[in-house]
Amino acid sequence: MSTLHLRVGFMPLVDCALVVLAKDEGFAETEGLNLELVREVSWSNLRDKLNVRLFDAAHVLAPMALASTLGIGGVRAPMAIPMALNLDGFAVTVSLRRFEELTRLAEGDLADPDVSARALAALVARRSAAGLPPLTFAAVFGYSSHTYLLCEWLGKAGLVLGEHIRFEVVPPPQTVEALASGRIDGFCASAPWNSAAVARGIGAMVLANVDIRRDWPDKVLVWRADDAERRAAAVAKLGRAILKASDWATDPANVPRFAHHLSAPDRLALPVDVLEPILRFEIRQGAGRPPRQIERFVRFDRAALRPEPAHADRILDGMAMAGQAVPDEEMRALARQVFRPDLFPVGAG
């Protein structure tokens, strides 16, 4: 059997795991693939390289794939999602100083998203009355579930992202330094960057996405739409390799080796002791609090990987909440077509 070379872009996040494991545990090779994994520095770089075919496929934010297909945000590049790569796994972290302020202002348990949102609204009002500049929160990309989580959380207390709180885009690996420097007061990002901020002693997690809702569509495997049709055999081979990686990743006995793969310098380049607890769903909270056990904090199981057209509606609802789009039925129909359950691999054992 001849070997097919595929160049796949990814961002250094725990949810790139299945692509990494497909290569590092040999599942891609078994399918006749030679995977070249390329670590990128920003989501826009990754999107643009996929668009001009410098990548065959990529680990991508699900909302970014829809925005590209719909031509929202200045780039129009039709994409196809033959499978997801995870669900959930992201959180909001703030600086220790802001966390202490929220703790003092909280009327109730700060672990309750409604309570933390109201405490944040009180802090925003106090700063405004004192003539202080607004707080700045970041997400990893404008078109992301992270942005929509921030909007939904802030909305619980009548706050509008970009109005009451400044909004910045900061690529995932830069979030910790941006928080440490004081450039931002908080951020929403996927694992491991919340845990990395806590480990560095500069941040505290306020809430995880699962505190507001579960099964958020997060990262997906994306091909250009025309390539997904033209290269169906390659799409299927990579999909089968990723399903095998999913089975391996969800075996608790593999966690130490799993963390070792992700810690490599050309993967996430973080210590195993930061990554392994995340894979055991033991999430560091910071501010002197013990780790929090969050059942299925990030999902890699097969059921999480099926590309669900209904996720397109959830994403468009997020875009509407963020003021990015006014979805009509035509837009929703086109967005649903980006998710391709017909291309989801079968028979991978």
UniProtKB/TrEMBL annotation:
This is ABC transporter substrate-binding protein. Pfam families: NMT1_2. CDD domains: PBP2_NrtA_CpmA_like. It comes from the Bacteria. SUPFAM superfamilies: Periplasmic binding protein-like II. Keywords: Cell inner membrane, Cell membrane, Membrane, Transport. It is found in: Endomembrane system.
